[in-house]
Amino acid sequence: MKTKSAPSEITICDRTYDEYIEMVKAFHGHVAPGVVLGGFMVDLAYRNLPQVEYFDAISETRSCLPDAIQLLTPCTVGNGWLKIIDLGRFAMSLFEKYTGNGVRVYVDSQKLDDWPELKAFFFKLKPKKEQDSELLMGEINLAHTSIFSVQKVMVDVDSIKSHRRDVFTVCPLCGEGYPENDGEICLGCQGKAPYLHSEMLIVPKE
Ligand SMILES: [Zn+2]
User: Fold this and answer.
1) What is the value of pTM for the model shown?
2) Which of 80, 96, 180, 185 counts the most CB atoms within 10 A of its CB?
3) What's the domain range around 84?
């Protein structure tokens, strides 16, 4: 029998579990299991990260985990301190900005066997509507950080730097600024824009 740890005893980066859940609701829209798992992961990474002045973050997935990182650390996609490198793994790292020394936390699939509902969620073994979300959240709370493993890592800081936006120029077709090394015309005009249709709106003069 596992030792029961009530959610109220769990802290996530100095917040209570309930405080974190409120933050998740406000930011993410609903209490997604992945953002709760992500909160535990960020907390675990923080506790294993040596004292450093500046650190950056990597999320190895686009879903849920980036929001936990943005809620609990100063690192956001917008300020560039959080990079999403979509390897499709539910894993994240925090590392010293300049040396790349840091820690990586990942869901250890071998540790999921004790938690059938969590395992089913994680490996998408059941359609979403068949998920028992109360049971799932219960397992997430009881499992807490026991399903993760922590690694010491050294990040290749040069390889994850974006040099793409160094020099900007004006696109001859759309007239908008774009990174020069994208080509003669911007990526939007190269057919990569997601719009089926666009037209100018006449904005009335004040
Ligand atoms: Zn263009």
Assistant:
1) 0.88
2) 96
3) 7-154
